[in-house]
């Protein structure tokens, strides 16, 4: 797999593409080269028909991603122009994740803080170990937080919880995150990887065109009403009904066997 830095690991395992943040000495804090690597890895997964699901994870057992690598800030964010360039790199990475046509799962252990939570919010599903810790510490650092990032959080947990997360800047437990709807599932640490692998395998065994259509439509629903492309949504639904996979799904149901979907 192609990666421009050893701090980002890209691995293919059957139908699952793994993108692993590999900076455990800094609790997987994201450096500039890691942001740059994300779109490259995701583009490769998107173009590979064998990959049906993408899982994001952090190396080690302390963190998914603990935020941006602050050790780079003096060099990478020391001036207005440098801040603009750095932010553009991060925005490009997050946009690549949000535009990913295939399902994405964030597997969370330990810290999921600041920019790490932003990455997690860009995924379709978030599955956390029971040691997960979630926070946006912007109010402790005096940082401004852009509209798009706040909107993603509000869309997921609602205005009140989003304000609580930002106003307090405290760390929330995995149980609290589940209560807010910030994560989909919480499982024991020892079971996390097996659970995520099984979940990804379940999704990967289902009809990719159906899943893609649902993801596309959910994305349109999240847009302002006057910006929604309803014709594209209907076209995606029509393509499912015209597909070989639809024939295979019906046939497999009648024959009482597992369908073998090809995404065609």
Would you kindly provide a written description of the structure presented here, covering whatever features stand out?
The chain is an alpha/beta fold. The protein has two domains: 8-203, 2-enoyl-CoA Hydratase, Chain A, domain 1 (Alpha-Beta Complex), CATH 3.90.226.10; 207-254. It has twelve helices and ten strands. It has helices at residues 32-47, 73-76, 80-99, 115-121, 138-141, 147-157, 159-168, 174-180, 192-204, 208-221, 230-241, 244-254; strands at 8-13, 16-21, 53-58, 63-65, 104-108, 111-113, 125-129, 133-135, 172-173, 185-187. The strands form two sheets. A six-stranded mixed beta sheet has the order 1-2-3-5-7-10, with helices on both faces. A four-stranded mixed beta sheet has the order 4-6-8-9. β1 and β2 form a beta hairpin. α10 (208-221) packs antiparallel against α11 (230-241). The longest helix is centred in the middle third of the chain and has 20 residues, at 80-99. The chain is globular and about 60 Å long. The model has no long low-confidence stretch (mean pLDDT 92).
CATH class category name of the largest domain: Alpha Beta
CATH architecture of the largest domain: Alpha-Beta Complex
- How do the strands line up in the largest sheet? 1-2-3-5-7-10
Write down the CATH topology of the largest domain: 2-enoyl-CoA Hydratase, Chain A, domain 1
Q: Tell me about the largest β-sheet.
A: 6 strands, mixed
The helix content is 40-55%
Number of helices: 12
Provide the number of structural domains. 2
Shape: globular
- The N- to C-terminal Cα distance equals 25 Å
Computed CA radius of gyration, to the nearest angstrom: 19 Å
Helix and strand pattern: EEHEEHHEEHEEHHHEHEHHHH
Q: Uncertain segments of ≥5 residues (pLDDT<50)?
A: none
Number of strands: 10
Backbone structural class: alpha/beta
The CATH superfamily of the largest domain appears as 2-enoyl-CoA Hydratase, Chain A, domain 1
Mean pLDDT over the full residue set:
92
Strand content: 15-25%
